Amino acid sequence: MKSKSDETRTAMASTKADLRELRQNSHATVQEIQSFLRELKGKGPQEMLGVVAASNLFRSLVISTAIVVGGILLFTAIPYFAGDDEKKAPAPIAESKIPEKAPESVPEKPAAEPVPDPLSKLGVGEELSAPPNTNPLENKGEDFLKDLE
Known about the structure:
The protein is an all-alpha fold. The protein is built from five helices and no strands.
């Protein structure tokens, strides 16, 4: 005899049971649509509007549409209002007037060496010129891997 926990474990892991349940649910939905269409058959426009208004399908459609639209608005508004505020740059510090001659008690510091731009080593700001009569994208049949050998 299986315990209740064993039944739960097998029910959770059973793909066959999931497919059977899906088939039953989709069959129920098809039956509901067919019964709705049977109610509409042979009725005038005024009666149809009454059937549509009384139908659970129409009500369900309106509710699901409202939920989806509300979800879209909500999940759009949250990042918009809670988004990154532009970091305000600190106010520029006013340069204090430096006396032309430093007092004797303060030792002078050597000037800091300028830091070389690391991108200049990579040739980032460099402009290369090409002959005006040639297309650089045209394939000339050259082997671009020849230098790797």
